[in-house]
Each structure stands twice: as C-alpha cells, then as structure tokens.
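Input sequence (422 aa), recorded before submission:
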Amino acid sequence: MESLFSRIDSKREDLVSFTQDLVRIPSINPPGEDYTKCAEFLGTRLAKSGFSLLYERAKDTPGDSDRYPRNNIIARFEGKHAGPCVHFNSHLDVVVPGKGWTVDPFEGLVQDGKIYGRGTCDMKGGLSASVIAMEAILEEGIDFPGAIEISGTVDEETGGYGGVAFLAEKGFFSKPRVDHVIIPEPLNVDRVCLGHRGAWWAEVETFGRIAHGSMPFLGDSAIRHMSAFLELIEQRLFPALDKKKTIMPVVPEGARRSTLNLQSIHGGEDESFSGMPSPLVPDSCRLTMDRRFLIEEDIIEVKAEVTDLLEELADSRPNFRYQIHDIMEFLPTMTDAEAPVVKAVSAAILDILGKTPDHVISPGTYDQKHIARIGHLHDCIAYGPGILELAHQPDEYIVIDDMVTAAKVMAASTLKLLGVNL
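Predicted structure, token format:
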C-alpha cells in the first residue's frame, strides 16, 4: 500500500484544484442549475483515465425540464478478470448558499488548509476524494478483478427521485451489476455511517370561511384552527417525541430521539402578494411537517400521532376541518455491522488513522434509502471526509488533509473488496 498511498499524497494539489473546479459549477437545487455541465465535467475527467461513460437523463421526474434536465453520469472501469463491482456514488447538487457568508460561496477559496465554498463538505470534496483514489489505483497499474464505478447523480437534496431512485429503477444499483456501494457523504473521516433515520414529510391544511376582516365573526379563520393544532403539538406531541430513544447510533446526540420540524406555514394572503394586504378572514392555512423517526417506530404509528390530534380537534372544536397528504416517506436504514463494505472501510480507517472507527447513523436521509428499497442492495454505507455539522451552513468548508486521508481509505477499501492484497 505504501506506493499507492504515496501516489495519493502526490496528487494533493490535483485533489484541491479538482474540488475547486467542481465548487465553481453552481449546481444549485432547486431548481437544478448546471447539472449537465457538472456531469460532463466529471465525465471528461474520468474518460481520460479509461472509464466508459453513460449519461442518463431522468425524464418526467420531479423538476426535470429541457431548461433543467436531470442528467446523471455513471462511469465504469472493467478489470481484467471477472469479479465484484465497487461503486462510489456522489450527488452533484448543492443547496442555495443562503445568507451569512464571509467568502464567495462559489470561489473555492483555499485558506488555512481548508477549501471554502457551497458543496465542499456536502459533498463535492468527497466526490473528489473518490476520483483521486480510483485514479491512483489505475495509475499504479494494479491488476484487479471486477469493476470500479463512479456516479455523479442529481436531486439528492430534494429526495433523489431524479438521481439514485431513477437509476435504481433501471438496475444500476442492484446485483449482479454492483456489489458494494460507498457514498462519500460528510459523516467525518474517522467514522462509518451505516444508514439513517426514517423520514415522513406531510402537509396539513385547515379550512375556514372567507369574510371581511372588519367583521371576522362572519367568517371562520383557518389560521386560528391551525393554531389550535399547533398548540396540541406543543403541549403533547413534542414532549412525547422527546421521550423516544433509539439503539441506533445516531449523531449528533440530539438526533438520537424522534424529532419534528415545523418546516413552513402559509395562510391568508398569497405568498406572492405585494403592497397592502386586503382585509380578509383566511379560509386556508397550510403547514409542512418534517418528522424524523427511529428504527423502533412503525410508520403507521408515526402518522397516527398526528392524525389522532387532528381527529380530536375535528370532534371537539366547532367547524374544524382539515386535510392531510403525504409528501414523501422513507423507512430507517441500517446496514449490518458485519457487512463486507463496513468491515473493509473500518479496517482501512484503523490501518491509516490508527483508531477503531465509530459506526454511526445519519440524522437525515441520503441516497442509501433508494439503494436499499429499490435496488435491494444492502452492502452500502456512507463514508466521506466532510464534517457533518458544516453541511448546508454558511462558510462551508472541507479540510484538505481529511480529503487526502479519505482517498487512502477509499483506495484501500476498494482493493480489499475486490480481493486484492498488496
């Protein structure tokens, strides 16, 4: 391994510049800016190392249009003999920069051993590390059986339907094509992520009756009905969720329980109005909820905790009317700690960093959910060099030393999974 690791060390500047170039492509989702540019940039790089390329557009998936095509790339390098396939999957999309930045979010500034920019941590730095790792294996001329794949997929930040979900439906994340998957999400360079909590997103709408704002007694306020629902959530649901703990090793500690985020609320005037509001009693109010749940919980019971409160209000509060619909739902995922990919990456971290890695669970979902539920492939983990808490934050960065270390872990893990001993 010494020669391979020395080669990765020698590619440090290339690793930095490649990450900077990726960050400078502002592949913001939504709406899905520059997906094609980002995919083709990655493809051009991998083609130079001998990878064969496939570009797959996820037509008719949420957000896909001729202006914002959901273009994915899958690159594959075949070994000289038959064998397993190790696949590195990274998402190309990043969230909006938001406010609070002290540097240009798309410059790729290098300072104090870090690269700053939107997507450095989540997860273009991890993508770059996987590319450098696989290039180093090929440049060393190591004879390996099977195949290596690298994919750049879209829409992970909005559910992954135009990316990994679409490709999984087409068989790109199932045996016999793929055996082991590593997703370089930012879960820290010395940890192996086995999976994630479950997620249920839903929208609740309460209804009222419109009337003149100077005579609210002639109407019925949908916002007041929603406030009654929110009061029950505060008084009863939040305390109940706080008591639910899990055996899943979720990080950070605060996520080792059930959580509910009241994500958005809209009522009365349309959000697009400008000028002075009109005097109206609101006849509709909508609430979006983001519920994260544990492997010990049943999805039917998770939903019932909300609908039971709504039904209670329908029975007890005059004129209370509502509807609720699911936006998306994903069950918790946790790969067996004895799975080959877990053992291979854990062994590499121990060898390279000199410590036994923690096995953790992500607080939020990522594309492992689609690989498990659609591809039925469970030898899958997340391992990447980014710091989890920096994801989606202003002044997001990635530590360059961590990217180099992660590239070595990825290279060593890949060879072990392919059955190569150096």
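Checked by second reader. The first strand starts at residue 52 and ends at 57.
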